[in-house]
User: What shape does this take?
Amino acid sequence: MKFFADTANLDEIRRVKSMGLLDGVTTNPSLVAKESMDFHKLIGEICELVQGPVSAEVTATEADKMLLQARELSSISEHVVVKLPTTTEGLKALVRCVDEGIKTNMTLVFQPIQALAVAKIGATYVSPFLGRLDDIGQEAMAMLTSIRTIYDNYDFDTQILAASLRHPLHIVQAAEIGADVATLPPAVFEKMLAHPLTDIGLERFLADWKKAQG
Ligand code: G3P
Assistant: This one.
């Protein structure tokens, strides 16, 4: 399973990278809006740092305008993956991006049929938002299982990018189901490694070592 960092903050990306777990980055307009840097410049710097897939989202809502933004974004770096909303207009833009060889990440997916549609067209990634479904009391992991089954049934190449993950258990469940990628907020990277018995164990080892040294 690949791990992407779900952030547009360069310091956070550097921190995750230093942990050796960073395969890529996903951003969205809400995350980019928190940073005080020109959008295209920021995406360029993230690509430079990550040297792997970096999702940058269009903000237009009509297919023609989405395509123009997709072209601009993908010209920033070979690492850019253009995020498109999974709407009718988003699908029209996807068809044209696929024709032009622009890598895509179809976002805001909340039901398996949306994932089936974008895979048929040839999206590079599909992003089911698991945490947001959990938030409204719906079976998020059932959606992910269904998408995995559909993709395996038809040998679709689209990679499943489990998004909107809130905690380490989400990652484990997504890995068991077979998501190709998990995109995680930086805080979840830190939480992944935390276990009270690890801390207690280390404390005891070091205390015993110190005692033995006199
Ligand atoms: O990658 C999608 C993600 O940014 C959405 O996460 O936490 O806003 O639901 P969240």
